[in-house]
Write a sequence for this structure.
């Protein structure tokens, strides 16, 4: 009865348009009342969850890095370099979209930040003089921004590391090869589409100019490498590394590029606080929701059911893929990560699946879900920013979704794709 009330209140609040975090908190209060528990447990769960997790301090710092890089003109330098490097190919601006999102993901850690940053700028470039169909430009930007959860520093990876109690550094490294593979797969799909539909190539940049363009973008390009280096060398914890990354971004903006004013810096800080508060609200709701679900024995029930099927590890991962993609049509990815994934981690561990590999599989599912019609968050973000009708995006995006799913299946069946780089740095799979 209490669990039914939890689900009904949550769904009702969400359908009525309440923010996801408030919907989960309201459901938690209703659950406490029906199950005759102290409603003060809601506050206890949220406060303990937020303030006992030192790793969560990295989240606002990485958000600050993304906002600062976006406001300081660093993005324009990256776009110039990406256009010089891959714009010469047929469908050049679509390739620029993918590559620039890959690079910017290494600073933002957020798919939405990527869509609103390089995704929006390149989409506008693609739409200039009607060079590409609106739906194709918007779909390319939405799918390119999905690289955010895979590329370090990834905010969803930080949440997963917290839930699964795995090394953040190993998880960051595990996302690198799949991210590069996804980029190449998307560029191959774009090349095939461009040839069939006759999309243009950009004017080639003389090769002698590439070193100068690379030098201009190099300080920003080094940020992910600096971050991974200080984490894996043991110089700093992930949270301390996030603070170093924020300081590095501040030095770039104020000292190297000198491209941001004091007023713009205050605006960046304000946006960071707002976005952190929004994520914090979702986290609070997830802590309460997870308490209720665990208290009712749902994880044990799911674990016993799946173990009763005597699934092999690969079969379990395929079931997880199907479940997460189905849920992505109904609810947002952060809720899936914070509420559903914790139920699956003990089962994966019990089946002998390495939790770093499992984390990468979860991130790839989140990538697909972010651009999966009809609920994909990035579709709505980019449709709103570019004023493109959803129907036009829906017609263009299936080929990209298939491409992402092919990468997902490859990583599911071949764990070494994710684990090779962490193992090279000394990680021992569990």
């Amino acid at each position: 009865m209490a669990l039914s009330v939890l689900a009904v209140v949550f769904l009702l609040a969400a359908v009525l348009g309440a923010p996801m975090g408030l919907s989960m908190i309201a459901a938690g209060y209703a659950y406490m009342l029906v199950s005759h528990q102290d409603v003060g447990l809601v506050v206890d769960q949220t406060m303990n969850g937020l303030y006992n997790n030192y790793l969560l301090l990295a989240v606002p710092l990485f958000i600050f890095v993304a906002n600062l890089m976006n406001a300081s003109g660093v993005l324009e330098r990256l776009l110039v370099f990406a256009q010089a490097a891959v714009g010469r190919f047929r469908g050049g601006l679509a390739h620029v979209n993918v590559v620039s999102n890959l690079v910017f993901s290494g600073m933002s850690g957020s798919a939405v930040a990527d869509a609103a940053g390089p995704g929006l700028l390149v989409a506008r470039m693609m739409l200039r003089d009607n060079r590409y169909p609106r739906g194709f430009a918007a779909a390319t930007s939405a799918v390119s921004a999905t690289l955010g959860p895979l590329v370090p520093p990834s905010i969803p990876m930080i949440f997963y590391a917290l839930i699964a109690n795995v090394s953040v550094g190993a998880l960051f490294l595990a996302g690198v090869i799949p991210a590069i593979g996804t980029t190449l797969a998307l560029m191959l799909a774009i090349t095939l589409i461009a040839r069939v539909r006759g999309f243009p190539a950009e004017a080639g940049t003389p090769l002698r100019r590439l070193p100068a363009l690379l030098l201009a973008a190099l300080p920003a390009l080094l940020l992910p490498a600096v971050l991974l280096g200080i984490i894996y060398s043991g110089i700093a914890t992930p949270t301390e590394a996030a603070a170093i990354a924020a300081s590095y971004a501040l030095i770039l903006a104020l000292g190297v590029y000198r491209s941001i004013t004091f007023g713009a810096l205050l605006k960046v800080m304000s946006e960071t606080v707002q976005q952190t508060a929004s994520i914090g609200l979702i986290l609070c709701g997830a802590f309460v929701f997870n308490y209720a679900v665990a208290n009712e024995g749902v994880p044990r029930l799911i674990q016993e059911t799946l173990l009763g099927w005597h699934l092999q590890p690969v079969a379990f991962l395929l079931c997880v893929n199907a479940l997460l993609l189905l849920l992505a049509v109904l609810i947002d990815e952060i809720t899936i990560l914070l509420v559903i994934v914790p139920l699956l981690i003990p089962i994966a561990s019990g089946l002998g699946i390495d939790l770093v590999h499992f984390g990468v599989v979860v991130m790839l599912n989140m990538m697909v879900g972010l651009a999966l019609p009809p609920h994909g968050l990035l579709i709505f973000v980019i449709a709103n920013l570019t004023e493109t009708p959803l129907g036009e995006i829906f017609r263009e995006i299936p080929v990209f979704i298939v491409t992402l799913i092919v990468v997902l299946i490859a990583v599911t069946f071949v764990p070494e794709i994710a684990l090779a780089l962490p193992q090279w740095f000394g990680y021992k799979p569990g």
The CA atoms of residues 34 and 416 lie 47 Å apart. The chain has one domain: 2-424. Residues 2-424 form one domain. The mean pLDDT is 83.
